[in-house]
Amino acid sequence: MRSTSITNHRNSITPSSSRNSFLMSPSTNSKEEAIIKFPINIENGRFLNNSPYNGTIPSPKNPEAVGQMTPDLTTKSIRREKRIKYSANGNPMRIKMDLPASGQLQNARDKITRHGIILHCLTDLLCQRLRPVDLIENMYKEHVITTGDLQAFHGHPDQRLVCESLVNNVSRGDSQQYESFCNVLRNTDGYRDISDILDAMTRISFMISDIPSSDQEDNVLADETTMKFDVGFYDDSIRQLKPVVELERIKDVNGKWGLHNSNSCSSQISSSFLSKDQQNNTTDINGNGKTNLVPMMTVSILGHNLQGKRAMVLAEVLHRYNCILELCLGKTQLTGSDIGLLSIPLQKNNSLTVLDVRLNNIGNEGATMIGNALEQNSTLRQLNLSSTGMDGAGCKRICDALKHNVALEDLDFSFVEIDDEGCVHIAEMLRQNKALKKLRLRSSSITWSGCKFLFSSLVCNTTLTDLDMSRNFIGNEGVDIISQHLAKESCIKKLNLENCGLTAFGCEPLCCSLLNNSCLLNLDLSNNFIGDSGARKLSKAIEENTTLRCFGLNMCEITNDGFSSILDALEGNKTLHVLKLCYNRLGRDSSNPEANSENLRYRIKIVTSSRPKLKLLLWGNTFEES
Q1: C-alpha 96 chain-centroid distance
Q2: Total number of domains constituting the chain
Q3: Under the GO molecular function aspect, what terms does this record hold (predicted)?
Q4: Which CATH number does the domain housing residue 586 bear?
């Protein structure tokens, strides 16, 4: 908080001793005092006589009225509560909520802490969006604020300070006051999006704190159990959650907010939130025209058991509120039936763009339910199914749903035993799908045979640009298949072949393909048996390739001899930005007298001085003194 009182008017010129007087409670005045001091505007040491009472008003006849006119404007921070832990390291505003375990008795203080920390998370958003003139009368009628609050807030020039004090009062109030505050926002035009975020956060925190889990979370450490909200401002044009402070830049001259009326996800949400008048008064972040921006949030729950009734509550939240942009539910013990509950609202949800259910044993049943949702959903862009216990049959159901899906761009099947059978289904999907851009198949039990099916489909696919095949033992045979594809008009820009059983023998066809490839930007061959022989073969590609930007050769058993060849190639390369050679054998072995450590250090300085943008990552190596 920037001020300790709503009546302490902020002025960067006026010293603190010359600022406004404080509203004094009866306990601070003598019994004989006949007046109550109210704020007097002071600017540059001069009084601004805009009050008919010149800074004072007659004392009320009823002494009890004095207490009613005293607003509670202290700013005791909720950060001091022992049960509250949060992180706010940057924008969008971030908060970590550690809630009491389910089944424990909670007193009123616990409940206050819950809604207090929710309001703390949204303080910046509320202070920038709320217009006190629209709300304080209804807040008073609903007993959210007192008579003294109403008098202090009414007509105050600093609207943000009014909002801060209002939020602080509600944070310290009871649950009924918080509910009344939310009701006022629900029933006031233009604040539906804010009230939905408040309601969704309240329901989710209630789900964790008050609903007993179906099983104790004994297998999860307490430090691994977290719930986190990111509140920001979603710009659909760049698909990014912007900092809350961006709201101030798009506020129009009338103080109204709105969205561009288009077919985008955020615009669909806005049409139900905002009035026609607000949708017509929209500006972009540069103030030149309309834009499609809307306050939204991401939800990340880790380690909590979400089975049974908790999954039902979460499904209800997804059904009722279109304010959740990303939903991450890692290691939450979800089953296939729980995914079935979540898949029903996902079919019609038009706000969720990221769904992460990694480390949950949902099996083929869960994959089937997600497939049903993908056939109907048109906004989900990223889906993480890593370590979910499905096999080739579950992979087939997902791929069948994606054949005609035009939204999903990022799919993760890592650590799923899809085998070569799954590659057949993925290949069939890629022949028809025109939206998927990133596919991760890390450690999916794929051999060179599955690799053949997969890359045969990429001949007619021009949208997939990022492929992760790491930790699949495809060997030199699989790398040869990949090399044949790269030598043609490939659209792959990022390829991860880490720990794939590649040897120096497989580096020969790969080098030839890199000489002819003009699309690949990032190639990772780390943790393969390349050695000095493979490094010498790849050096030719490094020297002549003009498109590669990042090359990974970590843990490849390369010694000084192989590194010397790579340095020779770098002297002729002008486009490579990052070369990773960590945890090799540099400085330990050398059969070439000219490739001693001292000479290599000198050559590194020559190369990096002539290429200031080049980053050579060499940690984990030992250059011995010659």
Answers
A1: 13
A2: 4
A3: GTPase activator activity; small GTPase binding
A4: 3.80.10.10
According to DSSP, the residues that pair with 313 across neighbouring strands are none
**For residue 578, is pLDDT > 70?**
yes
Residue 266 · residue 236 · CB < 8 Å: yes
DSSP character for 431?
H
Residues 235/284, Cβ–Cβ less than 8 Å: no
Rounded to the nearest 10 degrees, the angle between the axes of helix 309-320 and helix 336-346 is 10
**Tokens at residue 92, please?**
């969008």
Beta carbons of 353 and 382 less than 8 angstroms apart: yes
CA angle in degrees (0–180, nearest 5) for 583-587-589: 100
- Does 203 lie in the same domain as 125? yes
Give the residue from 330, 348, 377 where a domain finishes.
330
Joined tokens for residue 609: 């001085």
pLDDT tens per residue across span 263-319: 334 334 434 333 343 343 333 444 444 456 788 999 999 999 999 999 999 999 999
* H-helix segments, 307-382: 309-320, 336-346, 363-376
The pLDDT tens digits for 123-166 are 888 988 899 988 999 999 999 999 999 999 988 889 889 999 99
Nearest to 528 by CA among 506, 508, 555: 555
Residue 58 has phi, psi (to 5 degrees) of: -60, 145
Q: Which residues contact 23 (CB under 8 A, 6 or more apart)?
A: 5, 7, 36, 37, 38, 39, 69, 70, 71, 73, 148, 152
Residue 528 belongs to domain spanning: 489-626
pLDDT of residue 70 exceeding 70, the answer is no
DSSP states along 512-533: HHHHH-SS--EEE--SSB-HHH
Are residues 346 and 323 part of one domain? no
Residue 243 gets which letter from DSSP?
Answer: -
CA dist list (Å): 339 to 229, 336, 373, 395, 598:
21, 5, 10, 16, 59
- Token pair recorded at residue 319: 């059904």
Residues 6+ apart with CB under 8 A from 184: 135, 138, 139, 142, 144
Distance of CA 142 to the CA centre of its chain: 35
pLDDT, position 75: 41
The Cα-based distances of 89 to 75, 147, 230, 301 in angstroms read 22, 37, 11, 18
Pair (467, 574) in one structural domain: no
Query: Which of 472, 504, 525 is a domain's end point?
Result: 472
